[in-house]
Amino acid sequence: GVEDVKTFLKNTQEVVVWEVNGFEQVWDADAHEEYKALLISEFSEWLVVPEDLGWKTPLNDIWERDDLAVGQGRIIITYNTGYTDQTMFFPEVNERWGNVDEPEDLRQYLSTEVAKARDNPNYQPWKPNCQMTPNTEDIIGGRWSGLREMADAVNRNVTAWWRDEWLIYSNFSISDFV
Questions:
Q1: Angle in degrees, CA 67, 69, 70, rounded to 5
Q2: How many Cβ atoms are within 10 Å of 59's Cβ, its own excluded?
Q3: For the chain, which terminal residue's Cβ has fewer other Cβ atoms within 10 angstroms, N or C?
C-alpha cells in the first residue's frame, strides 16, 4: 500500500489523491491521530497541503512548492471524518451516484455529470461513480448473476466514454471490480 504509492510518486509526475472515508472498526481519537501522523510522515516529501486555496490551488503552485520533491509526483490527502486536520488535508472530493441499473441510463447520468462540471464556474474536483446500482428486482429476479456481471456490462464502455469523449473533463472516476 503505502510503499507502492511512494514508489509511484518517486517515479512519476502524477498527482495522487488518497481518500480516507471510513473505517471498518470504530477508531478513537488517538487512533486517528496516529494514522494521520503516519500519513504525514510517510508522504511528507510529496504532500500537498491545502493552504488558503484548497481545491482552487493552481497546478503550477502544486508543482513549484519548494518544500516538496523536485521532478516527482504529488499527493493530496482527504481525511473525511470528524478527526480531519484542515491544515494538512484537503476537503472531501464530491461524489455522485447515478443510482441506475441500465447501461444506457448510466451513460446518460455520466454525460449529465460531465456537462455540469464543464459548465461550473465554481469548479471543484468530483468523482462520478461509474457503476450501476442493482435494485431489488435485479437481485431477486435474477436479471444479473451478481455485481461482477453488472460491472462487466459497463466497465469497458465506461473506459471508452472517458477516453474518447470526456478525457479533458475528467477528474476521478470510481469503478468496481476492475
A1: 105
A2: 9
A3: N
Helix, strand, or coil here: 95? strand
The pLDDT > 90 percentage for the chain reads 47
What backbone torsions phi and psi does residue 114 show, to the nearest 5 degrees?
-65, -45
Per-residue pLDDT reduced to its tens digit, 116-163: 888 777 777 878 888 888 888 887 888 888 788 888 888 889 889 988
Amino acid at 130: C
In the Cβ-directed half-sphere of 51, how many Cα atoms lie within 13 Å?
9
Average pLDDT, the chain: 88
Residue found by looking up cell 478513537 in the block: 28
Sign of the alpha-carbon dihedral angle for 33, 37, 40, 43? negative
List pLDDT tens digits, range 5-53: 999 999 999 999 998 988 888 999 999 999 999 999 999 999 999 999 9
Dihedrals φ, ψ of 101, to 5°?
-125, 20
